[in-house]
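[Meeting: bench + compute handoff]

Bench side (C.D.) handed over the final construct sequence. Compute side (W.E.) agreed to return the predicted structure before the next meeting so the bench team could plan truncations. Sequence as handed over:
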Amino acid sequence: MEPVLLVDNLTVAFPYRKSWLEAVRGVSFQLYPGETLALVGESGSGKSVTSAAIMGLIDPPARIQADRLLFEGKPLLRQSESQWRKLRGNRLAMIFQDSTTALNPVLRIGEQVMEPLLLHEGKDSTSARLEALAWLARVGLPQPDRVFHSFPHELSGGMRQRVVIAMALCCRPSVVIADEPTTSLDVTVQAQILQLLRSLQDEVGMAVLLITHDLGVVEEQAHRVAVCYAGEIVETATCEELFSNPRHPYTRGLLDSIPRLDRPVSKLTSIPGTPPSLHDPLPGCPFQPRCGPRLERCSREPAPEIEGVRCWLMEKEAAVESSAG
């Protein structure tokens, strides 16, 4: 099966004074039809910048480079704005984290949900209105007709977020990038929205790139997981493998920091130290100042990727296994 989205060696840099700050460095992954790939990591790890680059939402003078950035086999880089308008919100859609900025404050909700249906699917106003109402109901909004005629400021944050989700899904995209899609929703509605995403995957083979820091959502929703740290992907694995046998020290730290019912709650586990600054990147592994089992070479050389893990410890483990065999 060919990937519907292929990202190969993506780097995103922003100008700062007389230099460049690399927010994303050498990110690579594939997303397949019907699959959910989760990008996880703490704030500032490059998850949202990666998604914005894929959606063509980063403008010059920022610099975006990639060996390949393909959607449905076609390159995304260097597209014209008219090509992006045909693609965004249609075959490639995004659920934004901040519903306040995602919605136009001077347009009624109905106009905004109808817009992609009118623009991309060529529906007349009557059929677009009926489908928009159906989607507002499908994402769990009470009284869809009242919401349809409301302005964004007349809705709660959770209701606005559900509107944003309806707008992203109404054209049944082949890929939807979900950037913290359920952050502002209560647990019941969150479960409803995640179930809606799963049902659309079954219905149309939609792929989901799920950006989140909620590992509970990841375990329930994702097929594969890519762990981000300091603008890099440090580990990629199936969801089952990652939770049962995390291999990168950062991944282990993330999972150890989750409160568990089988452990005392008097003290939560945390990862010591702070992520490196973009202004002062480290010459070796970006995680090495916070890593307990680090090696001497970790501070000098960027780690290669070995079996989906970007860590020098993997080379050491491979050598031990080879000698034992």
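W.E. noted at the follow-up: The two ends are 34 Å apart (CA to CA). C.D. will use this when planning the next construct.
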